[in-house]
Design a protein that fits this description.
407 residues; 18% strand
């Protein structure tokens, strides 16, 4: 377009390459040598050296010593370092918000995680719990100071325009999460970014878990309900309004009961935590996820729990088969209770899965892959929202190195 500045001006090109390199360091988990990063990004060796020094000088990374890379040793006879997270570098805070509890964690560049807080809602209100989250975030902001580059929040609801539009707690309906977490919508420096918990769990598996490198993947996360996401080349397909992946509200298993969402026959009534508790005859008391985990753990010794698990595991498998027919993924990731059920009763999940697959898919069905991130999945995905925003020329422009920060 006329009047648009050329993107190859020296300052802009340098900012672009700094962001590219830092994204690659983050994506590689701080495990790639400088030589490997140079080849991956197709940079000149001298350019890569200057960029690494620049990032280190800004307090964003530090270069660790490493064994000599074999190919570099043959070519140049010198060792190469591993650019990794600086000990005083950027921190993303992540929140896994559930209807009955929340967890707060800190993520460094390259993905290293420290869980900081976990709190049950108890008898308090959902609005009160959001206030508790805001208080914890403000406390952690003081702890990390200017290192904090944003907050990512995984919520149990589809999200539209930053608001929860079908939350598990009615009092959260249409709540703007960022606005609820502090004055002017921010507990500290950096943006507050919100996403559906199941979508973020899938993003995390594609970035750092079992779905890494899978070109077309389906991810399913079972908690109180069932959500998920289709990922293409590691990127979530979130739909026209950002709320795709509500697989739990599809009539996949033939049940005809009304659902809290306003529809009838939703899959989550059969295969979510509520379905498992109903199948075993337990009332919902407190944290439904913990209750469901206890039923799964007892299934091997308690006949009633065993029968309930078999029923729900088959329902889970049948729904997965229907989704595979529709989405055609290479592999299916499972997290939350989906992973727990599959690991506890793989035969029942597989039997249900194969029963609904189209015939031509059964000889070589997409693999069912339990999460390698466990309870950190939604938190990890929430942190990736923050780093996606920060690891850009504009985002890096907001960073002040420790030496530049004022007391």
């Amino acid at each position: 377009m006329a009047g648009t500045a050329a993107p190859t001006r020296p300052a802009e090109l340098r900012a672009h390459n700094l962001a590219r390199l830092l994204r690659a360091i983050h994506a590689g988990g701080g495990q790639l040598t400088r030589a490997e990063l140079t080849r991956q990004l197709n940079l000149a060796r001298g350019t890569a050296t200057v960029l690494v020094r620049d990032l280190a000088g800004r307090g964003l990374i530090e270069e660790l010593t490493s064994p000599v890379d074999a190919s570099v040793q043959r070519a140049r006879g010198r060792p190469t370092g591993i650019p990794s997270a600086h000990s005083c570098g950027p921190v993303a805070l992540a929140v896994d918000l559930r209807d009955d509890s929340f967890t707060v964690a800190a993520f460094e560049l390259t993905g290293r995680c420290t869980v900081l807080d976990r709190q049950e809602r108890g008898a308090g209100s959902g609005t009160g719990m959001l206030g508790d989250v805001a208080d914890r975030l403000k406390l952690r902001n003081r702890q990390f100071g200017g290192r904090m580059v944003g907050v990512g929040v995984a919520v149990p609801s589809p999200v539209s325009g930053g608001s929860m539009v079908q939350p598990t707690l009615p009092e959260w309906q249409d709540v703007d999460v960022a606005a609820a977490l502090g004055p002017a919508g921010s507990p500290g420096p950096g943006p507050v970014l919100t996403g559906n918990d199941a979508t973020l769990a899938g993003l995390a598996e594609a970035r750092r878990g079992v779905l890494r490198g899978v070109s077309v993947a389906l991810h399913l996360h079972v908690a109180t309900g069932i959500g998920g996401v289709l990922l293409a080349d590691g990127l979530p397909v979130t739909g026209a309004y950002g709320s795709a992946g509500e697989f739990g509200h599809m009539p996949l298993t033939g049940i005809q009961e009304p659902c809290r969402c306003g529809s009838v026959g939703c899959w989550e009534l059969d295969a979510g935590a509520r379905g498992l508790l109903r199948a075993v005859g337990q009332p919902e008391q407190g944290d439904r996820i913990i209750q469901a985990e206890q039923v799964i753990a007892a299934a091997a010794t308690d006949p009633a729990c065993g029968r309930a698990l078999t029923h729900v595991a088959r329902a889970l498998g049948r729904g997965i088969g229907a989704l595979v027919n529709a989405q055609d993924p290479e592999a299916v990731g499972l997290s939350g209770l989906a992973a727990d059920m599959y690991q506890a009763d793989p035969d029942s999940v597989t039997a249900g899965y194969l029963s609904t697959l189209m015939r031509f898919r059964r000889a070589d069905p997409p693999a069912l892959l339990p999460s390698t991130l466990g309870d950190l999945g939604a938190l990890t995905g929430a942190s990736e929202l923050v780093f996606d925003a920060f690891l850009t020329p504009r985002g890096l422009g907001t960073w002040r190195s420790p030496g530049q920060k004022t007391a």
